[in-house]
From TrEMBL:
The lineage of its organism: Eukaryota, Fungi, Fungi incertae sedis, Mucoromycota, Mucoromycotina. Residues 260-276 have a biased composition (Acidic residues). It comes from Rhizopus oryzae (Mucormycosis agent). This is GST N-terminal domain-containing protein. Residues 10-93 form the GST N-terminal domain. Residues 245-289 are annotated as: Disordered.
Length: 289
């Protein structure tokens, strides 16, 4: 049994597939930092029942949370969790590399520019796959956004220009650097991978068309492969790594091969206007899946 127990969100119709962007920020941070963990899966209905009994703070029940058996602490919220992990596991690869602020800035840029187009591409899939929570998911989200889920979802191609616009500055950076904030993978890569994994797991064909194939080069594909050790590891692999660690002192993140980089032409701006709903302050808060 691992020191860390991590709570993830299960969609009844999908089984144990990690899909949720907020929980994946924590899953991928644990992977980045090479920290073994056990996953407890909760459905939407179970989140409301189980999380308050764990956190005991009265805060809105959300996942991710982690429980640390060594310190008996329970931490809620992916940002709080990564900060806790930085302190609690000082010998693990860092998520911030001494520059927490730039990673936080990137996170908020992703929430603003990447999250919403992806949310709209997958919202019907999530709504249809959450079993007994289906009606409640529809009612709450339709209430937040004051429109039907179908209207919110629109057609995937409606949201592709906004997603491309959000990816453009990242694509530019990745022409020159292997990772989002430079030469080492960190929280920024974790956050981006979590957002893109949301689309990849629920709509792989849209992930291919609107992320991997959206620019005329392999820059994003190469980054996606480079950070596979963050987004493809599950707890079984972390147990294997744990064993390997006792026989080798090279962290997997250091062992990860870095590709070479060539200057390539940028893509043209789309000039698409953001949808009005995106400007509503509660819109970001309420994409809570
Ligand atoms: N800022 C929080 C957001 C957490 C959040 O909204 N989690 C969603 C899943 S991604 C949730 O638990 N939703 C439960 C619900 O809507 O009932 C974080 O980063 O951890």
């Amino acid at each position: 049994m691992s020191r860390i127990t991590y709570y993830d969100l299960e969609l009844e119709d999908l089984g144990k597939v990690y899909w949720s962007r907020n929980t994946c920020k924590t899953r991928f941070a644990l992977n980045l930092k090479n920290i073994p963990y056990d996953t407890e899966w909760l459905t939407f209905n179970e989140v409301a029942k189980v999380i308050p009994s764990k956190t005991k703070t009265g805060a809105r029940p959300t996942v991710p949370i982690i429980e640390d058996k060594e310190t008996q602490k329970v931490i809620q919220d992916s940002w709080e969790i990564v900060n806790y992990l930085e302190e609690a596991f000082p010998d693990s690869p860092s998520a911030f590399h001494g520059n927490q602020g730039i990673h936080k800035f990137f996170q908020s840029q992703c929430e603003k520019n990447i999250a919403f187009p992806i949310f709209k591409m997958v919202v019907l899939t999530v709504g249809n796959a959450c079993g007994p929570f289906k009606q409640s998911f529809r009612e709450t989200r339709e209430g937040y956004f004051n429109m039907s889920l179908e209207k919110l979802a629109g057609q995937p191609e409606d949201h592709a220009p906004d997603l491309k616009k959000g990816l453009e500055p990242i694509h530019e950076v990745l022409k020159s650097y292997p990772f989002v904030t430079g030469n080492q993978a960190g929280w920024a890569d974790v956050v981006l991978a979590a957002h893109l994994n949301f689309l990849e797991k629920l709509k792989p064909e849209l992930f291919q068309a609107y992320v991997l194939d959206v620019f005329d080069d392999d820059i994003l594909l190469n980054w996606w492969k480079r950070v596979e050790y963050i987004h493809q590891i599950n707890e079984f692999l972390t147990q294997v790594l744990e064993k390997e660690k006792s026989t080798s002192s090279t962290p997997i993140s250091e062992a990860n091969e870095q590709n070479s980089f060539e200057e390539e032409d940028g893509e043209e701006e789309d000039g698409e206007e953001a949808l009005e709903i995106e400007n509503r302050p509660e819109a970001l808060e309420n994409q809570n899946c």
